[in-house]
Design brief:
single chain; alpha+beta; 5-stranded antiparallel beta sheet; 3-stranded antiparallel beta sheet; globular; binds 5-S-methyl-5-thio-alpha-D-ribofuranose; binds magnesium ion
């Protein structure tokens, strides 16, 4: 880009002079740079995010910082995560067109991505807290997961392309390290950066005292760190989804890694479940049940769209080394049983991840606003207790949860339960 060949974080003062010579930027914003206006809007845990507006249009400029923004420069983090986000966005855009923001420019040294300003989209987590339903969200998320997970796997990819891509994304180890610690490990011991709402100690004791649970979580971590099934988004929570009333886009794949197919699905479902359980703190009883029902319908419809599209791709695009047609259809045999078994594995992995993601959002470092915005600590701890216990159930008893109908029944049971 710009005026410097060495990495330098952008500021409100430098962003215009540093970006004004970049052609894709001027062609979208307009060449009269005196009209450009910038604002820093980053509210995530890691990066700088600017909106840059000109007289012709607007853009998002996202730049990695050399440390974790949430914690500060005592926690260094490689700038290369922007490279992995860029590469993930490129792959997601070709595998699941129209579901991610368009990328206009990438600068590896500056760890900077210039991309489409999604407007008037808002972060899904905020909409769930505000009780604003989104038409078509299940379809977009279901198609996104099916297409990216199938097309990024050995079911579809040329095997040498897949292996080269696995090797490339192994470089994103620092971001995987965050997930390995904050998500899979820290909730289950007294880790330094953990924090929790007072009153949860008894439940935390039950969770940490459960050896079976910790073994299942470590099994899931082993899959996370060793199974290169597909290119995952890696951080698919409701803060990584932006919506209007009827449009949905998926953002922020900087945690992109090759991992288990159930990972993204589990994290997504988990964030809907936490939104569901936290609802009583965010709205009056008049609107509560209807919105909670809508959230459970989203989960059900999302998973139905996912399985339908995954099945469609299994039938029409299964050209990789896995489950080749030569072993099934070409011998006049059905591959339905193989598909069924694979989908079952994905579902069970997703349930385990869902439980773990709930535990980490309440016990580890990075909490979510669904609970964190609840000012009254007594109300918050009661709702968090329901979620923690539900998470435990999802991890320990996943074999009894065969489908989204059974999952909805469990969500309703924990919603009505009282654990403190
Ligand atoms: C230190 S980063 C904490 C969390 O923020 C990101 O969005 C990921 O979810 C990560 O676990
Ligand atoms: Mg993020």
């Amino acid at each position: 880009m710009t005026t410097s060949t060495e990495y330098e974080p952008l500021t409100l003062e430098t962003i215009v002079p540093r970006l004004k010579l970049i052609e894709p930027v001027t062609s979208i914003l307009g060449s009269d740079t005196s009209k450009w206006k910038a604002a820093e809007i980053g509210d995530g845990n890691l990066n700088l995010v600017f909106i840059l507006k000109g007289d012709k249009g607007s853009l998002i400029v996202k730049q990695a910082l050399p440390y974790v923004r949430l914690v500060g420069d005592s926690w260094p983090l490689p700038l290369t995560r922007a490279f992995f986000e860029y590469n993930s966005l490129v792959r997601q855009n070709s595998r699941a067109p129209n579901s991610v923001p368009k990328v206009f420019f990438f600068d590896k040294v500056q760890a900077l991505i210039v991309m489409e300003f999604l407007h008037p989209h808002k972060i899904l987590r905020g909409k769930l807290i505000a009780g604003e339903p989104v038409t078509g969200i299940s379809e977009v998320l279901g198609l996104f997961c099916a297409r990216t997970l199938f097309r990024g796997s050995d079911l579809s990819m040329d095997t040498s392309d897949k292996k080269n891509d696995v090797a490339l994304f192994l470089g994103n180890s620092a971001l995987c390290d965050i997930t390995e610690s904050l998500v899979f490990t820290d909730p289950y011991f007294d880790a330094k950066m953990n924090h929790n709402t007072p009153g949860l100690e008894k439940i935390i004791g039950q969770i940490r005292g459960d050896i079976n649970l910790k073994v299942k979580v470590q099994d899931a971590l082993m899959k996370f760190s060793s199974n290169t099934e597909t290119l995952c988004h890696g951080d698919l929570h409701s803060g990584s989804v932006m919506c209007t009333t009827d449009d949905t886009k998926i953002i922020d794949p900087e945690f992109g890694f090759y991992g288990p197919m159930g990972f993204d699905i589990g994290m997504l479902i988990s964030n809907f479940l936490m939104a569901y359980i936290s609802q009583p703190a965010h709205r009056s009883s008049k609107n509560l049940v209807k919105f909670q029902d809508w959230i459970l319908e989203v989960i059900t419809k999302f998973y139905e769209v996912f399985t339908n599209e995954f099945t469609n791709l299994w039938k029409t695009e299964r050209n990789g080394i896995l489950f080749p047609k030569s072993l099934f259809e070409d011998q006049g045999q059905s591959s339905e049983k193989a598909l069924e078994a694979l989908l079952k594995n994905i579902w069970f992995d997703a349930l385990t991840i869902s439980g773990i993601e709930i535990h980490r959002r309440i016990l580890s470092l990075a909490h979510n606003a669904d609970f964190e915005d609840i000012k009254d600590e007594i109300i918050r701890s009661r709702l968090e207790a329901k979620a923690l216990m539900m998470g435990k159930e999802l991890i320990l008893n996943r074999e009894a949860i065969n489908d989204t109908n059974a999952l909805s029944i469990i969500a309703r049971r924990f919603n009505q339960g009282s654990f403190l």
